[in-house]
């Protein structure tokens, strides 16, 4: 059974920030290369079993939190049907910790969804320590073009 703990016992702030950045860059690389099988080692090793995604992108179906499998299905449907060339680009990351709470605030671009359009977006990522490994627990996003 997976044990989820808080991140208060992580000590090296520089290493924590580097690890969060590495995981998020690889997350975007996985999406951009269409590696969307939830059984892929990256997803298993870096995403908490309790993961949820909530996106505020002008589509009411995204307001309810979904798990990783459903998020990956939505991304797959997006590139298969609407935006075959979409790409996610990280612009800036800032990871902060307050006692047992570790969060990354991220600015990123969604390119070519729809074709020819770049939308600026933001995300808040909450982290957990699962079986001694830093993992993404929750992602909340908001696209700049949604309002």
Automatic annotation (TrEMBL):
This is SnoaL-like domain-containing protein.
């Amino acid at each position: 059974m997976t044990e989820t703990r808080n991140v208060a016992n992580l000590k090296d702030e520089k290493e924590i920030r580097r690890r969060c950045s590495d995981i998020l860059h690889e997350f975007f690389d996985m999406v951009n290369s269409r590696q969307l099988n939830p059984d892929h080692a990256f997803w298993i090793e870096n995403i908490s079993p309790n993961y949820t995604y909530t996106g505020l992108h002008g589509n009411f179906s995204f307001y309810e939190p979904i798990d990783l499998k459903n998020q990956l299905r939505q991304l797959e449907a997006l590139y298969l049907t609407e935006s075959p060339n979409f790409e996610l680009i990280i612009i800036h990351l800032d990871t902060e910790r307050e006692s047992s709470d570790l969060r990354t605030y991220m600015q990123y671009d969604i390119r070519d969804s729809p074709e020819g359009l770049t939308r600026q977006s933001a995300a808040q990522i909450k982290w957990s320590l699962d079986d001694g490994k830093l993992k993404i627990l929750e992602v909340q996003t908001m696209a700049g073009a949604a309002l």
